[in-house]
Design a protein that fits this description.
Layout: E1 119-122, E2 129-132, E3 151-156, H1 163-176, E4 181-185, H2 186-193, H3 208-230, E5 236-240, H4 246-258, E6 262-269, H5 273-282, H6 295-310, E7 327-331, E8 336-340, H7 345-354, E9 364-368, H8 373-377, H9 388-404, E10 410-413, H10 417-424, E11 430-432, H11 449-455, H12 457-465, H13 478-494, E12 498-502, H14 504-515, E13 531-538, E14 541-548, H15 594-599
Parallel strand pairs: 3-5, 3-6, 4-5, 6-7, 9-12, 10-11, 10-12
Antiparallel strand pairs: 1-2, 7-8, 9-13, 13-14
Helix pairs in contact: 2-3, 9-10, 11-12, 13-14
């Protein structure tokens, strides 16, 4: 049913960009394939819209669209290729811009004006809009914002409050988990600068000459901190001093900021006179300052020294002055804690460790299980039962525990048969820890060393070369074992009297923590069967006693071979390294242009120090890692851990 439309004159030809497709001859409507009609020459005259009306000679009107026809399905016709002059019709759907994947620009791209908005592109895979920014991904001066930035731990507090105890204990823990850490005790610098200590008058606030010497000693220690963290591969430096004034702490903060170090403050607060007096009698009287004094004179002089510090003491105030600092306040030897603005993972681990330690007297007993069947056969790993001599040791251990008469003794074992059978003879409740299981030897489980050498000669050679970092195929390394035993160490620090019945490799790791042994020494510590190790924590360490229970056994100790490496291991396999428990890092800067940035800083420490003040603490740095001739596919060259020197 078609209605015939009255004839109309075509619209006139109009010049200009806004005339639309009807004003341009020879243009094609996008998506339809219909051609526009050519305009007729002459004046525009339109037919009357209603009968009887004169023709309209006014401005031309847009043509009325043709009536729709019933839908008839037909085969789609291909669209004609548009000519170079063709453009889409205003009624056509807008064409979409092609999608572009987000690819960062080259480092040499020009910097974007910060006032201009970022260009948005759409990722083909994720279908999200991403900003296009051609700036380099890592700025050259973003040290404190990085997770692995070097950290300066700043001790705060009056004398005899346990700062040095916390410093050395924390350093021992961090080195044990593989974070290179070193203590810089300003008191040692002062003793080097002032050869002979006279009296407490040296610490009086009105002693200007002594104040200059003390400040120069602090600056010398900070200089060594900078060298250790920026050049020697250290990750954490403990600045052990009183730091009781805001002026001194501001100087340390300025030093850390200028060198791109993080700063974490640990303040020890104790108002219990009994604890202070006990600390003085146990530690301070035996210091080099009082080697020629009796106990009463030393106690009196040290109490007067504390009074000199109390006159100018300004505690950390996280509610007002120090609200932006990262800190923890240890109040009354762990009775209460105050934590403020912990920045990263390593600081949270430090806080967790400090919240678990205590100074109460206690005794820790460590021993291996009784001799088992695999010990007699020379096999490693497995889960065999006790031999006849192993059962005798279990009975002897029960008698030994009764003689010690320890109240509230807790007994811990692994989940393997030999330790459980040893603990059963004690007739005491015991706890099973999966973390105390022997090191997993992987494919070498239940084999003798001769069988390993014949079956896996390459693995045997690799382990002989570096026993700490070597990881058994599908098994563990000593480094992995340290990570597994960290919860055990935390719980041991919380407890009082504990007996731990474990295995040789596990006992070596635990003993290395308490005796502050390096990763190189740990796999070769002697832990014989049928011997109890009695550990008694003392001021700045741990005293160990070895008690043999007179039951014979085989020896499972293997001495270090002459072919064992004495430097970094070039044959590292399976990447037995974790981010936080890595060997000593190489001396490469951690961030772009780090050395240039440090060299250009304006916070250079003064070099005009007296000759008595040391400018470098003794330390040891390993050589750079190297690869063997020909290279190793899939191997990772690593360096060994840094040796922490007590100062």
């Amino acid at each position: 049913r078609r209605r015939q439309q009255p004839a109309r004159a075509p619209p006139p030809h109009v010049e200009g960009a806004g005339a639309g497709n009807a004003a341009r001859p020879g243009l094609t409507r996008a998506g339809s394939g219909e051609e526009t009609r050519e305009p007729a020459a002459g004046p525009a005259v339109t037919a009357p819209e209603h009968p009887g009306c004169p023709p309209c000679t006014s401005a031309p009107r847009a043509p009325r669209p043709a009536p729709r026809t019933p839908h008839r399905p037909r085969a789609p016709t291909p669209l004609p290729s548009p000519s170079p002059l063709s453009r889409p019709s205003p009624r056509a759907a807008p064409a979409l811009a092609p999608l572009r994947a987000f690819v960062p620009g080259p480092p040499s791209a020009p910097r974007r004006d910060p006032k201009m908005p970022l260009e948005l592109t759409q990722s083909r895979v994720q279908k999200i809009w991403l900003p296009v920014d051609h700036r380099p991904s890592l700025p050259t001066s973003c040290g404190p914002k990085l997770t692995n930035s070097p950290t300066v731990i700043v001790m705060v507090g009056l004398p005899a409050r346990g700062k040095t105890y916390i410093s050395k204990k924390l350093t021992r823990y961090l080195n044990w988990i593989g974070v290179p850490t070193k203590v810089f005790n300003v008191g040692e610098y002062r003793r080097e600068a002032v050869k002979q200590y006279s009296s407490y008058n040296f610490f009086r606030p009105d002693n200007e000459e002594a104040m200059k010497v003390r400040k120069q000693c602090a600056l010398a220690a900070l200089r060594d901190v900078k060298s250790y963290l920026a050049k020697e591969g250290g990750q954490i430096a403990v600045f052990d001093a009183t730091n009781t004034t805001r002026e001194r702490r501001h100087m340390i903060l300025h030093f850390a900021k200028e060198n791109d170090f993080k700063a974490f403050f640990i303040e020890s607060v104790c108002d219990d006179p009994t604890v202070v007096a006990s600390n003085i009698m146990e530690v301070k009287i035996s210091s080099p300052d009082y080697k020629d004094c009796n106990s009463a004179e030393a106690m009196d002089d040290f109490m007067r020294r504390i009074g000199c510090y109390e006159a100018s003491y300004q505690p950390l105030d996280p509610d007002k002055w120090d609200r932006d600092l990262s800190l923890i306040k240890v109040i009354d030897v762990g009775r209460r804690f105050l934590v403020n603005r912990v920045q990263d993972h390593i600081q949270s681990r430090i806080v967790y460790y400090l919240m678990n330690i205590h100074v109460q007297p206690r005794t820790i007993y460590l021993c291996r299980h009784g001799e088992n069947e695999y010990n007699l056969q020379g096999r490693i790993g497995g889960d065999s039962g006790l031999s006849s001599r192993g059962k005798k040791f279990a009975s002897a251990l029960s008698q030994f525990v009764e003689e010690q008469n320890l109240k509230g003794l807790r007994v811990w074992t692994s989940q393997l048969k030999s330790t459980i059978q040893t603990a059963e003879a004690l007739r005491l409740p015991y706890e099973q820890w999966k973390a105390l299981n022997e090191i997993d030897a992987g494919v070498c489980e239940e084999l003798t060393y001769e069988e390993i050498k014949d079956t896996y000669p390459e693995e045997y050679a690799l382990r002989e070369q570096d026993k700490y970092y070597y990881r058994y195929p599908t098994g563990e390394s000593y480094q992995d074992l340290v990570q597994r035993l960290e919860p055990v160490i935390m719980e041991l620090e919380r407890q009082e009297n504990v007996l731990v019945i474990c295995h040789q490799a596990v006992l070596r790791c635990l003993l290395a923590y308490f005796l502050d042994k390096s990763a190189e020494e740990m796999p070769y510590l002697k832990c014989p069967l049928h011997t109890v190790l009695k550990l008694t924590p003392v001021a700045y360490g741990c005293r160990v006693e070895s008690i043999y229970l007179n039951v014979e056994s085989v020896s499972t100790h293997r001495e270090r071979s002459e072919d064992a490496k004495k430097g970094p291991n070039p044959l590292m396999r399976r990447n037995s390294v974790t981010p936080l428990a890595s060997p000593e890092p190489t001396k490469k800067p951690r961030i772009n242009s780090f050395e240039e940035h440090v060299a250009s800083t304006s916070a250079a420490l003064p070099s005009c120090l007296p000759p008595e003040v040391p400018t470098q603490l003794p330390g040891q740095v390993s050589d750079s890692p190297f690869l063997p001739a020909g290279g190793w596919q899939g191997q990772w060259p690593q360096a060994r851990g840094c040796v922490c020197m007590r100062v």
